[in-house]
Amino acid sequence: MSGIYIHIPFCKQACHYCDFHFSTNLKKKDEMVLALAKEIEMRSKNTSITHHPSSITEPIETIYFGGGTPSILEISDLKFLIDAVYKNFKVVENPEITVEANPDDLNFDFAQYDKEVDLSVRAESRTIFEELQTIGVNRLSIGIQSFFEDDLKLMNRAHNVEEAKKCLEIATQYFDNISIDLIYGVPQMSNEKWLQNIETALSFGVPHISSYALTVEPKTALHSFIQKGIIPQPNDEVAQEHFDILVDKLSENGFIHYELSNFGKENYFSKNNSSYWLGKKYIGIGPSAHSYDGKNRGWNVSNNSLYIKSIQENKLPIEIETLTKTDRYNEYIMTGLRTIWGVSLERIEKEFGKTYLDYLLMQSKKYFDQELLECVKLSEVETILKTTKKGKFLSDGIASDLFLLNK
Fold this sequence. Notes:
single chain
């Protein structure tokens, strides 16, 4: 087992672009925390998502709190859930424990950080960062999104620019392993403004940046505003320009572009997310959370009340899909092309057969000709298929064209 993902389905307010499962009604928060802990216990007894008893000797390497907004929970809630993992699973000595957080939830008292404040006074009133360290959290993923007020208002973020900067100023004094999120392709965002966002992020010395193009998902407020003409439609060409600026600027500053949307300094790649892209097993806890055991994929019901009710009745609220060989091939192509690890041609032939390999190379030919894909020989026995720098931004579209259908 590689990791455990715990979905915290609550937010203070709804970001206009978000289509993840969450609720702004916190009435069921306490019930939810108890249900999450109980699901952790239930899953330790049935670690295969098909509910067949299986070994739990594989240690947990990562614990990841995602959402929603995990930082909306109390420190005691997070500790309760971390303790539940340790109680029910074997955990490696120093697991990566990540909490996604919004700047406004890291509600520190600025005076506590004043170096002139007597240390004994500070000891009596620890910052939230010290509290997180105390319960074992060693990585923060902070949802900044932009360092400009107009962007934050367009996205309906709960924090402002001052909170974002002050949060990072203080967080970096306590945590070495910090990732921040930035969004590009925002309507009316110039290249110069986007570059300023990147440079501001770099000024805090964080070792990891996740950056995503603003996408318009159905049934979101953003989709409605665009349909009504209130906000212009994001421009794909602008998004690609922003992406190219991002890649070049972060490369200049020592970041490795190890996945389409993720950039990390050496030894600071997200272990949790890397496990997904490398096809490792993981358990998803909470409503809408997904799980994978190598052959089957499962997902919990995306409804807080139904999730809690099911867990209270000792039932796992999960649907199961057994992946076919073609499903597994398609998933490997999708994840592989997004990463620096690429797609191993030897693995394709060994795991899926020569027919799949021949099909992959045939479908890839036009992208070789367009210099969007390339084959890189790593050794005498291993060659990988990967996107070129020119093709990286288009990797998802290229991958979908390499999928095998109806096999």
